[in-house]
Design a protein that fits this description.
Immunoglobulin-like; 4 helices; alpha+beta
């Protein structure tokens, strides 16, 4: 059985903030990053949701963490489980503003960040299924600008890595 972390980015809703009122922010996509290995992004950028609405990406991706082919990812997961003070123990989701067509002078801009702790999944022995997580403003980490609905199924892979740690 190939061990993997399965990630789904279901939808995004924004609360009233500088983001909703900023006319230059029109299209959004979401990037998901595991430490410095891997960045995946939703193939579509969608029009910014307005008051109370959500935009639906329904995008899923798989990170393989089997011993044979994905050693670096696996070693990283080991360090997540073994080093309690490792700061980067989370999957990081970044909400990115995609400049409108014809606005070449504007660049993609990170507008918000959301996190899922892999260590917490292991500690609670529970995957994250269709859960709303807070999106924090990239310019003010204490301000929540929205909710991202995600699924992160990592428990099986983390248990397997944990077993291997015990046997090392």
């Amino acid at each position: 059985e190939v061990e993997k972390i399965w990630i789904k980015i279901t939808s995004l809703g924004l609360t009233e903030s500088r983001i909703t009122s900023d006319e230059t922010i029109q299209q959004l996509f979401v990037e998901c990053r595991l430490n410095n290995f891997l960045a995946e992004e939703t193939p579509l950028s969608l029009p910014k949701p307005t008051g109370g609405q959500r935009i639906h990406y329904n995008y899923s991706t798989v990170i393989n963490v089997d011993k044979e082919d994905n050693h670096a990812e696996r070693e990283y997961l080991k360090s997540v489980l073994l080093k309690p003070d490792l700061p980067a123990d989370s999957l990081k989701f970044t909400v990115v503003s995609d400049p409108p067509e014809g606005e070449q002078d504007l660049e993609c801009e990170d507008i918000g960040f959301a996190y899922v702790s892999l260590k917490e999944i292991f500690q609670k022995q529970r995957d994250i299924i269709e859960q709303d997580i807070d999106v924090f403003d990239s310019q003010d980490a204490s301000a929540v600008i929205g909710k991202l609905t995600v699924t992160v199924e990592a428990l099986h892979a983390l248990r397997s890595v944990h077993e291997e740690c015990k046997n090392d």
